[in-house]
Write a structure and sequence with these properties.
Blueprint (H helix, E strand, L loop, with lengths): L4 E3 L13 H10 L2 E6 L7 H9 L4 E3 L13 H14 L4 E7 L7 H17 L4 E6 L2 H10 L5 E4 L5 H9 L2 E5 L9 H9 L5 E3 L21 H11 L4 H16 L8
Parallel strand pairs: 1-2, 2-3, 4-5, 5-6, 6-7, 7-8
The structure holds zinc ion.
Amino acid sequence: MTDFIVDSHCHLDMPDFDKDRQEVVQKARSVGVRGFVIPGTTARRWNKMLKIARAAHDIWPALGLHPYYCDTHTETELEQLEEKISKEHPIAIGEIGLDLFLPQLDEKKQRFYLEAQLDLARKYDLPVILHIRKANDPVLQLLRQHPVRGGICHAFSGSLQQAHKFIDQGFCLGFGGMLTFERSRKLRDLARNLPLDALLLETDAPDMSGEKHRYQRNSPEYLPEVLDVLETLRDESRAQIACQTTLNLQQLFGLQIPGFH
Ligand SMILES: [Zn+2]
């Protein structure tokens, strides 16, 4: 029997999947991946994402402006985002955030788009999908100034204390390919010690490949490998971890996941 798991973060709209998107999704389903969240990156990609999601019952889009591309975002796109939200009803606003790891990204611009999108999330009562690198405390501070109903800290990397602060604000934490590297000790400790009802599985495909697929395209079909590691780290059974992480995503986004009860 395969697991019943969901990929809470995969960029299926990326050109990396243009040649074999349908096959990738089918392969993932065949190994137990029964749901896919596609987070938004830039305004010009939203329509493609929405089209991919509309064609399937188990793919859900989030719409947003990713901090990586802060140089290309415009204020008009923020207005377009609001229009899209009221028309398309995405499950969340994302991927939004603050990346202080890459020095070429303008922090001021990143903060501007993050704050504006947090305010939209509050206005439309939507959860958010956060991308945070070297910026957990600044983002926690922004969340106090711009409170939202919660969401996901995707590819979480931080201290146990920071993790709990996010959980207290209604967030779940996403763990993916990085966990499959034995040297990821700190991350593995976190995944071992956090409450199961705060954990989510993700791939971030086509990026963040795990140990077995280093330097290759990452894919949602490898999501069971994240579950393999969690199973070795935690006391709960594989089935319990699969079920609870799926339930976490369902509750966070108020989703109907076909076949999941
Ligand atoms: Zn991402």
